[in-house]
Amino acid sequence: MQLQTNVDANHVFGAPAVEAFATLHKRAALPASGVYRHPIPLRAPSSGEQYAFEVDLDACTGCKACVTACHALNGLDPGEAWRSVDLVVGAEDAAGGLQHVTSSCHHCLDPGCMHGCPANAYVKDPRTGVVRHLDDLCIGCRYCTFTCPYGAPQYVPRLGIVRKCDLCVDRLAGGEAPACVQGCPNEAIRVRLVTTSEVRARAERGDFLPHATHPGLTKPATVYRKRKWPEGARLADFERLRPEEAHLPLAVMLVLTQASVGAVVAGQMVQHAGATPASWAGIHAALALGAAVLALGASVLHLGRPLRAWRAILGVGHSWLSREVVAFGLFAALSAGAAAQELGLLPALSPAMRQAWDLGTPAAGAVGLWSSVMLYHRTARPLWNARRVAVRFVLSAVVLGSAATLLCMAITTHGPASAETVRWFRILAVVLIAGTAGKLVAEGAIFLARKRGPGDPLGQAALLLLDTLYQWTVLRFLLGWLGGVVLPVLLLLPQRAGAPLPAAGTAAATALLLAGELVERTLFFRSGVAPGRGGSKR
C-alpha cells in the first residue's frame, strides 16, 4: 500500500507497527477511506436485500486456499467440492489471457435447483436470501444437478443425497466470515449485501462471467469484479471432450414409458378397427402395463434414497419431475385397470365408462411424456431444448409402440391372418419404418453442429458423438436401421391375406429397436453438455 504523506518516512517506518500506524492516523496521513472493508457485512439484510459473495478476480491467484478451507470446515467427502477454481483463457493474441475464477453457489434470486427439486429439499431464506439444501428431505434424484447451470449441487454417493454451499450462514449469524473468505490470502472473496433490484439489473445486462450461462436464467447474486476480461474469454479446457454421466436407470425409464404410451395408442387404434383376435386385447394391455411398471421401477433405482421415493410427488406445483411422476403413476394405474378388464379380473364397465377409461389412459400418458420433455428443457442445455427432445421422445413412442403392437398381433394371430388384420399389420409396419427413419435423421442432424467447435455446447455434443462416443453412435444407428427399416421392409410389408404373420421376424425387429433406443437414450445423457461449463466438473 502506497502512503501519501509528507512525514519523515524514516521516523514513521523505523518505529513499531502500532506506533507507526498511530502516528499516521494522528497526522491524517492514512490512505483515503474505503481502502479497507470488513470481509462480511456488519448488519443483517434488510427488506429487499440479501447476502452475496463478492469476488475481486484481479486479486485471485488461483491458489485454491478457498477450496481447501471450505472442504476442511464443512467436512466434505473426497471428491466433493462446494467451491471450485477454474482457469479462463483469452484468444491466442489477447493481452492478459489468463484469469483464475473462484466460484461457488451463487444463491440466485430464481434458483434453478429449488424450482426443479421434486422433494422440496431447497429453500431460499426470506431473511438472508441464502439458498439452503435440506439434507433430510433430499431423495437423491440429482435433478438439481441438471437444473443448476453452475454446477453447485454435488451428489454424495456415500449419503445418497446432494449437498451444496450454504454461504456458512451460521457463521455469518455469529459474526464470523465463511471459510472461503477467511481462507483467501489475498482477500479476493468477501460477503456483501446486495439488493434484489441490483441483481435483476445485472442479470438483464448480462453482467456476469463471460464464459458462463447467461445470468438471466437464474439471476445469480454473486458480484464479480474485473478491470478487463481478455478477448474471447473461455474455459481453459473448453476443447476437452468429456462425456457426461450415463444415468442408465433414467434411460431405461424414459424408453419404457414412451414404449408403453405408444403401445396403448397403437393398440387402441387396431382394437377399434376390429383387426385383432379376442385374446389379443388382454395380452396387449398386460404388455403395456408391464413396460410402465418396469419403467417406474427403473426410475427408483436412480434415487440415492429409494425408500423416500414417495416424496417425488411433493413438488408438483413447480417441478416437472413431480408432474412426470404423477402423470406416469396415473397412466400405470389406468393401464392396470384396462389390463384387469381385458383379462376378466374386474367387472365389465358400462360403455360410457369404458370410453372414458380408454381416453383417459393415453391422455395421462401424453401428459407424462410432455412432462418428460419439459423436465429436460428446463435444464437450459442446448441439446435438450423442447423441440429436439419432443421429436426424440414422441418418435420413440411411435416407433416402440408400433413395434410392440406388431409383435402382439403376430404372436396372438394363430394360423392364417384375415385381410383386415394384414391390412393393419402393414399400416403399422409403414408407421414403424417412417418413424424410425425420421428419428434417425433427427438424431443425425446434431452432427451438423460439429463445425461450431468444442467451445459451443452443441458443437461439443456433436464432437462427443463422433469422437469419444463414436462406437456407441455407430451401434445406435446400426440397430435403428436394421430393426426399424431393413427388417420391416423385408419381413413385415410383404404380408398377404391368408398367410401367418411373421412372429420371429417381428420379435427380432422389436428387440433390435428396443436395444437401439436404449443406446440412443444413454447417448442423450452422455452428450448433453451443460452450457457455460464446457463439460467441466467440480
Write up this protein:
The protein is mainly alpha-helical and 538 residues long. The chain has three domains: 1-36, no CATH class; 49-235, 2-Layer Sandwich (Alpha-Beta Plaits); 248-526, Formate dehydrogenase/DMSO reductase domain (Formate dehydrogenase/DMSO reductase fold, Up-down Bundle). It is built from 17 helices and ten strands. The chain has helices at residues 9-13, 17-26, 65-74, 112-116, 144-147, 169-173, 179-183, 196-205, 248-272, 280-301, 320-342, 351-377, 386-412, 419-444, 457-466, 470-492, 503-526, and strands at residues 49-56, 84-89, 98-103, 122-124, 131-133, 154-156, 161-163, 189-195, 223-225, 234-235. The strands form four sheets. Strands 8-1-9 form a three-stranded mixed β-sheet. Strand 4 and strand 5 form a beta hairpin. Helix 9 (248-272) crosses helix 13 (386-412). It is elongated. It starts with 8 loop residues before the first helix and ends in a 12-residue tail after the last helix.
